[in-house]
Fold:
Amino acid sequence: MLDNHGAAMNVTVPKATARIKFRYSRSIDPSPIVAAVEAAAARAGVTLDVIRQGRPPETPADHPFIRAAEAATGHAAETRPFGTDASELQEIAPCVILGPDVMDTAHSPRERAHGAAGGGGAGVPPADGRLTGG
Structure:
């Protein structure tokens, strides 16, 4: 995300901010990528602040909670590069992230998740409070 702090897009701005969100799974070591970004910033004379969230959530595939989620949804668990509060919440309890059918509707009133065979799935309450899904 780029932020020119209110300056017009067709001028050299006195201050600009770029935010990069790097999402990775627990099995990937982010150190080489972070080091490359840090080196590029140093070469360009750019100030870089690295802010890390919690470790990527990745509950073991054989964990009872994962197996229960698979049984309830009828779908095998898989790892996806989505940012969620699970990075912080996993310190309290194991996490399972259930997402929308398609990313086109994520974080919108039309977001929904279906269970096995397209019916009886987990409901996602949209902004108006109705329960959808299943």
